[in-house]
Amino acid sequence: MSVPLSIAMAAGRAAAAASRAFRRGEGATVSGRVILALRPDALAQLSRGRRIILVSGTNGKTSTAELLRELLETVAQVGGNRTGANLDTGMVAALAKEPQHKLVVLEVDEMYLPRALDELKPERMLLLNLSRDQLHRTSEVRMVAAGWRAAIDRHPEIDIVIDYEDPFLAYVTRNHPRTTRVGFGKRLHLDAASCPECGSLLDWSGTRYRCAKCELGLLPQSFAAIGASAIERNLELACIVARHYGVAADSVQPRDRVVTVISGQATLQVRLVKNPASWIEALSALPDGPVILVVNARGVDGLDTSWLWDVDYSTLRSHEVLVTGERRLDAAYRIHVDGVRHRVCENLADATSFLTGSVTVLASYTAFIAITANSGHKVLKDSKVTRR
Amino acid sequence: MNESKLRIVAVHQELLGTYGDIGNAAILVHRARARGVSAEIVLARSDAPLPSSGDIYLFGGGEDSAQIASVTSLRVYGGELSLTTALSNGAALLAICAGLQILGEYFPGSGGERVEGLNLLPLHTISGKRRLVGELGTRSDRFSVSLTGFENHRGCTVLDEDAEALGEVFLGIGNGDEARHVDGIIFGKTIGTYMHGPALARNPELADHLLVSVLGVLAPYEDLPATALATERRRVANALASR
């Protein structure tokens, strides 16, 4: 016999409080783990009677979910996994923490999405993009997409919003009757030379990809929107979702995950870059001034650094560049081949000791977490990026 | 070699470029130019015939469906003949992971079915029991240093009995053939390996081996960032192997 849900939730709260007391982080994962150990069905139970909106994709989950919550909070109280803990443990913790909130926005890890659909029974889902990421962990993007497709086919009742310019999202929602396909204008995709559905070469010569064999990409788009950068597209998509809840969404700024950290004489604008798509995005809009690259290759960063070679670094040639992180030599050699002069530093403190003023830091996942949370640097605030 | 420029043909990058494979082309150009040899990358797309005038051909890694699209294109556009012509004219070839499998006699499709390869290399590939992911390290008499890389594959490649492997595995799995704990193949001027993605970044000696095999002689060149990376990865591989 299992313990009552209320007892499991109390145990989770106690564990989270203990974790916070010992400064081991927010406690979200710990609390979720305890609740799930006592009640393996907690995810389904805690979502019952609530209106759940899921946000998933390779890039932009946390910032877009946050944006969506902010939009929705203008009309209702909204719960969610604000810390970005996006596996079952993090979602359970978020649902247990604020049981009074009937409307909940949850970001979900790509690999976990199929189970989340089955257990949470969301009413709406926003899919941002799907591209190569941490190949050692998530396996190849086509395998992830196949899992999504099967899960989405099982849930025709959900309302889904997708960026239709991503062929993988077109593929996963192809048979789904309640999908809003938002067109942004043609954008090439690193992993979609061949059709996600049938494997033949996609034709990218027209206004959108299309597959001559299985006709992927031929369904009409629901409507067209404008979004030159990923940040702008995610804002647009969040607004489309929010409109369903009565939000007139024009006041919110696009959001980027940039954290300001003061280090000695330098003001670091720290940005998370975790896979080729996010590197390309970050390098395309670099502010003037020095740039520090921090590359690690621990589990969540991807153990394999080969993706470094998927990115063109030539925009760095006009910047002062410093390289650090556990895999600094991989990154240093990579940009050397692209003709970028740079200095290799033992650690971030060494790198910043040369610098004053505003410095852009592009950091892989574990480096980003370390710099913004545990480094002893003072974290000012999440900054907002204004619309260009 | 082509009289004017070293032509490095990156084959079907859009299909066989899943793991930063274009890096190998960039590294070969970089190391050739450092020796005063002009070099260019030729992107051979899968919707057109493969040029037969290349000096070094690069086949990279890719997913199952992309791998099959690539081999289908090679068949449709006579890529087999282009490659045979190029190789008999003295071209070199680097084949990684899916690319290596394509050049063998056959390999498994996504459902495990047998797909015919180009049969240019004395090997074949069957489905392995599990996905092999992690650091890979090998040694051989051909190179004065060990080779290191990262592998991520499921296929299990079996060399023909008299075929020479690229190296003996001291860390990781390599080809995955239980009878021979080796990685890759060395066959004429062709090198195959499961050290995927930009294997040449971590192994400048392998890059120079390919360049020497088409240029004959090569001026000495030490590229410090390359040496630093290769040395560090070898140190890490040795440490992992002795754990």
Could you walk me through the main structural features you see in this protein, from its secondary elements to its overall organization?
- The complex is a heterodimer of chains A (388) and B (243).
- Chain A has 388 residues and is of the alpha/beta class.
- Chain A has three domains: 1-40; 42-243, UDP-N-acetylmuramoyl-L-alanine:D-glutamate ligase (3-Layer(aba) Sandwich), CATH 3.40.1190; 258-383, Alpha-Beta Complex (Protein-Tyrosine Phosphatase, Chain A), CATH 3.90.190.
- Helices cover 35% and strands 17% of the residues of chain A.
- Chain A is built from 14 helices and 14 strands.
- In chain A, the strands form two sheets. Chain A has a seven-stranded parallel sheet. In chain A, strands 12-11-10-13-9-8-14 form a seven-stranded mixed sheet.
- In chain A, helix 12 links the parallel strand 11 (321-324) and strand 12.
- The longest helix of chain A has 17 residues, at 5-21.
- The N and C termini of chain A lie far apart (57 Å).
- Residues 375-388 of chain A have low confidence and may be disordered.
- The radius of gyration of chain B is 17 Å and the shape is globular.
- Chain B has a single domain (6-241), classed as 3-Layer(aba) Sandwich (Rossmann fold), CATH 3.40.50.
- Chain B is built from seven helices and twelve strands.
- In chain B, a hairpin with a 5-residue loop joins strand 5 (106-108) and strand 6 (114-116).
- Chain B has a six-stranded mixed sheet. A four-stranded antiparallel sheet of chain B has the order 8-7-9-10.
- Chain B is an alpha/beta fold.
- Chain B has helices at 22-34, 64-76, 79-88, 98-103, 199-202, 204-215, 224-241, and strands spanning 6-11, 39-44, 56-59, 92-96, 106-108, 114-116, 123-139, 147-159, 167-171, 182-183, 185-187, 190-193.
